[in-house]
Amino acid sequence: MALPQAKQDALAARIAGLDLPQGGWLGAARSEALARLTAMGLPTKRDEYWRYTDPTLLTAPGACAAVFDDSDEPPVFDAIDRLKLVFTDGVFDAAASDNPALAGIEIERLALAGSADIHWAQGLYGVLETRGQNPVPRPLAALNSAFATDGILIRVTGKVAKPVSLIYRHKSDASDAILHHCIKLEAGAELTLLENGPAAARFLKVLEVEVGDGARFHHIRAQGRDHERLAATHIFARLGAEALFKSFTLTANGRMTRNDCVLELVGDDAKAHVAGAAMGDRSFHHDDTVFVTHAAERCESRQVFKKVLKNGAVGVFQGKILVKPGAQKTDGYQISQSLLLDDDSQFLAKPELEIYADDVKCSHGSTSGAIDETALYYLRSRGVPLKQAQSLLVLAFLAEAIAEIEDEAIADDIRGRLEGWLHRHES
Amino acid sequence: MAALDAQSAELEVREGVDRETIETVNAMAGKYKYGWETEIETEYAPKGLSEDIVRLISEKNGEPQWMLDWRLAAYERWLKMEEPRWAMLNYPEIDYQDQYYYAKPKSMDVKPKSLDEVDPKLLATYAKLGIPLKEQALLAGVEAPEGERRVAVDAVFDSVSVGTTFKAELAKAGVIFCSISEAVREHPELVQKYLGSVVPQSDNFFATLNSAVFSDGSFVYIPPGTKCPMELSTYFRINAENTGQFERTLIIADKGAYVSYLEGCTAPKRDTNQLHAAVVEIVILEDAEVKYSTVQNWYPGDENGKGGIYNFVTKRADCRGDRAKVMWTQVETGSAITWKYPSCILRGNDSQGEFYSIAIANNAQQADTGTKMIHLGKRTKSRIVSKGISAGRAQNTYRGLVSMHPKATDSRNYTQCDSLLIGDKCGAHTVPYIEVKNNSSRVEHEATTSKVDDDQLFYCRSRGMDEEEAVALVVNGFCREVLQALPMEFAMEAQSLVAISLEGSVG
């Protein structure tokens, strides 16, 4: 069915200035992605999964300029021993990056690896994204697959000694970056991936992860600090038997963030945990859209999302657990909670369950409210000053999400960021 | 009079036999109890839907011009609307021209002045359904044991209201309880003021269709400060083939009034699908309270999904005054397709809305049902308890909205949706929307999905129950919170319905 003219025009305007490199295996993948995008058109507020987040700024032809405030705080993960790969305004910066030679891992730059005729990433690039388009279309991800300017391809064959850290820097206040990463963990491999930095004024990212049988993937990211950037990110992951996938995201401010996470558990006994802690002050719109599909037996999934909102900040959570026929003994859990620190903030949630197997245990919970007055009173009666008592209760509220980070040093680092944010946004 | 009494007594006896036979047959088929048909001469309007049909329905009801204009405006709107398809329901396209929009028993041609004049066949039909339309018998305590609560009934058969019991006694208390067609003629000021004020003509596709073609339904007005002296009820029966039923109910509880309202419905077994698109509007003023209970038991279709009622219903209560209260309780066991979201608009400060629901889908049934709680007033409270049970190849979806507007400060919502799956071919889904726009309100939502617990089943079986009985018991326990919210007579019926609806789902 042809798209309505208005949608065709919007799409044409959005992709007018973008480059579609030809040739190699990547050229073919890009053309296919463009075909998908052309069939779907860009998202609008009328789409079911965009009803709480207006995609206009994300789909506009150009990015609005964003102001990036640099605080004195040292960047997140600074104290962690890691292999750094730096992108500046969406372009790989070899000079600022570490030498990518490390045991048990192959790292290549997308822009260079794409021209070959055959590559292992062919089976991954745009493939998981395509699978993730059904039943809910994600046109921004298809746009990314077609027009990504750069990215990293990582193949892991063993246990990697230290985390790989993707650092997104910015120089220009009006940069518009499109990055696409693919990570393949072979059977039994293990990798921790860190991501941080504001990247660009507008950042569109796709991360495709194939977690092989018995492989373990840990992902911790810190999205921006105090700045006005827009971000639309997607994680598409497929898990083999007994695979483990754990992803945690910290979002502190940012004008608009939309994080899509699409997980598919196709091997028996796999485990997938996704968690997020978001803190927003003033013009902050944060949307977590999570779609977990159980297609195998005895798998476990957890979604833990917490949001602390003040001064008119808006938090959105759309989560779904889909249990396919035959996915017996599924254990699915989902919790989304928001703490509204004042009367202007909003929390909009749509926690869904869609279940086609009977021997399952699935639950979800969602709550929204202010800080518990009784708890606050208790702390104050014990001599804790008001501000400190509030911070303590906010941290306690976020604790369940942070508990999803296995590495203690990284979890401590994240906790430090939260405290810093609370301190800066006390008023 | 005496002759009539004798006749009904005779009917009773003959019927006792009939009922037993029917029950035996049904037990063998293992299914629907109310699938028989009343053979009665029926008058139909021409098939299909057009402006002429709308005019005809209005004329048949002897309506004033304003009512006709209202219907025609709705029809105009409907022509431009599209059937909603967002629900998790899968059904073939409905041909709106391939059915009758008006059917009434010939014997109702001349409106009976009282119940005594009603065609005995019709009375017998309701007696067979367990709905006595004989006031005197009830008053004399012949059929009802001493002390049992009395219930006034408005009986709707296809497109017309057959009769309303206890009208005179209710009138003494100032309560108006009659068919909506009668209310349009007798109480136009009330109808004009409130009709469409909760569910506007253009609310949604099915409500708009109903606004154009509704043929009958019930009307209730409870005056200020009045506690309705008995429970009111409407019993809907679809009998005619290929006929849609479109009833409209309007309940107004004036300041400080109270009423408990019951609704029941059944239909014969047929191979073709039949459409039912009803609208219920409830207006609740200051300090008033309305309890609305439904046992929906339309024909669900056979094991293979052949036949059954398509049930598209819009029900909404508007708590207009401060401290107004509404409670929806529904037991949804019938219909091939259920599309129904009884909602509460909590406009008045301190108003309260409650929704208790059991939805059972077996065989090829599909249900997409839930509620909306719109908190507009300060300190408003709502509570949702929904229990969905899926068996066979059925799909059961809870879909709900809880919305806290910025001004609805210090409000509270608690939602609990539990789903139970029996068998591995069915589905249970939960689609809640939660929108919180102020921070002094608390919203809590919980949902679980599980299967019938093996340990509980084993325990029951070890006590000598067969598997179906054991499942029925466990399921009844699962539904307990909702069953307890029902008026007593309904609770008993609902409990046995739960067991019946699940027959054949085990093993």
Account of the 3D structure:
Chain A: InterPro entries: Fe-S_cluster_assembly_SufBD, SUF_FeS_clus_asmbl_SufBD_core, SUF_FeS_clus_asmbl_SufBD_sf, SUF_FeS_clus_asmbl_SufD. Chain A: Residues 173-397 form the SUF system FeS cluster assembly SufBD core domain. Chain A: This is Fe-S cluster assembly protein SufD. Chain A: It holds the Pfam family SUFBD_core. Chain A: It comes from Fuscibacter oryzae. The complex is a heterodimer of chains A (427) and B (507). In chain A, the strands form 2 sheets. Chain A has a 10-stranded mixed β-sheet with strand order 2-1-5-7-9-11-13-15-17-19, covered by helices on one side. With 427 residues, chain A is α/β, with parallel strands linked by helices. The model of chain A has no long low-confidence stretch (mean pLDDT 92). In chain A, helix 2 runs antiparallel to helix 6 and helix 7 packs across helix 8 (386-402). Chain A has one domain (5-371). Chain A has helices at residues 5-15, 24-40, 56-59, 110-113, 127-131, 139-147, 373-381, 386-402, 408-424; strands spanning 83-88, 91-92, 105-109, 152-156, 164-169, 176-185, 190-196, 202-211, 216-223, 230-239, 244-252, 256-265, 271-281, 285-294, 300-310, 314-323, 331-340, 346-355, 361-369. Chain A is globular, with a radius of gyration of 21 Å. Chain A has 9 helices and 19 strands. Chain B has 507 residues and is an alpha/beta fold. Chain B is built from 13 helices and 24 strands. Chain B is globular, with a radius of gyration of 22 Å. Chain B starts with a helix and ends in a 6-residue tail after the last helix. Strand 19 of chain A pairs antiparallel with strand 24 (442-451) of chain B.
